Amino acid sequence: MCTLANYNPAMPSTDLKVTSHLSIPESELVERFVRASGAGGQNINKVSTAVELRFDIAQSPSLPEALRARLLAKRDRRLTAEGVFVIDAQRFRTQDRNRQDARERLVAFIASGLSVPKSRIATKPTRASKTRRLDGKRARSDIKRGRSGVHTLD
């Protein structure tokens, strides 16, 4: 279900393909066409070319649970508190190109959550590295201590 302010039946209704095994159905995307801001003269006042694309990550049945958790954990300003990802696309002059741009940015965001981050294994510093660190601190201390000597003029 694609709720549009200005519905155009000529637009193809296909699923949004993220990878070969993951795609987002058209029914989960909500698009709204609005007037863009900025320069553009008369055209900007007459034509609704900007696209607001919304995708509810928190309620999407097409995303695996692990991917959903990784995407919701990201601190992205486009992600609302309810887990809805909102993209405003108005870089281009045409509605179709802005629509493609918004979808490409959504695919890029979802694809960024596909890679599982490697868990960090905590390690302890070696004895040699501790010794090197303390030797460096001692040398720096000696240099500073040498600067503060009382100098007499003869």
Shape: elongated
Give me the CATH fold name of the domain at 16-112: Double Stranded RNA Binding Domain
State which percent range the strand residues make up: 5-15%
Low-confidence stretches: 1-10
Rg calculated over all Cα atoms? 28 Å
User: How much helix is in the residues?
Assistant: 25-40%
Strand order of the largest sheet: 3-4-5
| Major sheet details | 3 strands, antiparallel
Mean pLDDT: 80
CATH architecture of the domain at 16-112: 2-Layer Sandwich
Q: What is the straight-line distance between the termini?
A: 94 Å
Helix and strand run:
EEEHEHEHH
By CATH reckoning, the class of the domain at 16-112 would read Alpha Beta
Topology at a glance:
Blueprint (H helix, E strand, L loop, with lengths): L15 E2 L5 E2 L4 E6 L7 H5 L3 E7 L8 H9 L10 E6 L5 H18 L14 H21 L7
Antiparallel strand pairs: 1-2, 3-4, 4-5
EC number: 3.1.1.29
GO molecular function: peptidyl-tRNA hydrolase activity
Enzyme class: hydrolase
